[in-house]
């Protein structure tokens, strides 16, 4: 019998919008190519439901970000139990423990499955959240972290033993080196980059990235070297996140309007062109 994995997700993208969701796509695609049976209950942003070796289940939460974690976990609890009854999967893989960890901690006790959590980073927490998340972290059969820093944070904040945490760095898609399209020309035509020393940031425009610090540093660089340009490539990580407006206001207040470019979210090929 093939190994069967259930990987509940809030979102799934092939094109890069949020790094974690893109990582999930390539990770699950790779597992399915190895002959592993993959079952994915997912809320939103499924671009294509025809994945070889995958079975996708649409969890009926149109706006999961507004529903709240408890109701989201209740929906996933029902769907994952239904999937287990049908498939008898052996591994439950959780990518967002701070959101979906509540129901997985319960399922780990109810069903004969192994639970694996992947932590990319730890969000800010109040005292009650930290207590709950510590219990959830200890409930997993195994934990992976995408960096040594995240592993150290898991040990410090949740007191997880080091032997329970495996550091697995995110991979690079096979097409990352492809040079489709016009390369630099795409951005040289759209933006005034000629003759500039270009600095670029690619990622979500959200507070935990500490981009206000980046802008403070760039202000000093720009004063000393006026022919420098900072490109911020990315969008909000959450529909209600207004950090981008904060960044734009700060740029205006510092008089850096011509030195900082906000180019928004970009496709995979556009990001490759920007890096080239």
Can you lay out the helices and strands and say which pair or pack?
Blueprint: E1 4-6, E2 9-11, H1 19-33, E3 37-44, E4 54-58, H2 64-67, H3 69-87, E5 91-94, H4 97-110, E6 114-119, H5 127-139, E7 142-145, H6 148-158, E8 165-167, H7 184-190, E9 197-202, H8 211-224, E10 228-233, H9 243-253, E11 260-262, H10 268-275
Parallel strand pairs: 1-3, 1-5, 2-3, 3-4, 5-6, 6-7, 7-8, 9-10, 10-11
Helix pairs in contact: 3-4, 4-5, 7-10
Quaternary state of the chains: single chain
Main sheet attributes: strand count, strand direction, barrel closure: 8 strands, parallel
Total helical segments: 10
How large is the radius of gyration? 21 Å
N-to-C span:
45 Å
Which secondary-structure class do the elements indicate? alpha/beta
Helix-strand pattern: EEHEEHHEHEHEHEHEHEHEH
Number of strands: 11
Helix proportion: 40-55%
Give the uncertain stretches in residue-range form: none
Overall body shape: globular
Mean pLDDT: 85
Strand content: 15-25%
In short:
With 276 residues, this protein is of the alpha/beta class. The protein is 42% helix and 18% strand. It has helices at 19-33, 64-67, 69-87, 97-110, 127-139, 148-158, 184-190, 211-224, 243-253, 268-275; strands at residues 4-6, 9-11, 37-44, 54-58, 91-94, 114-119, 142-145, 165-167, 197-202, 228-233, 260-262.
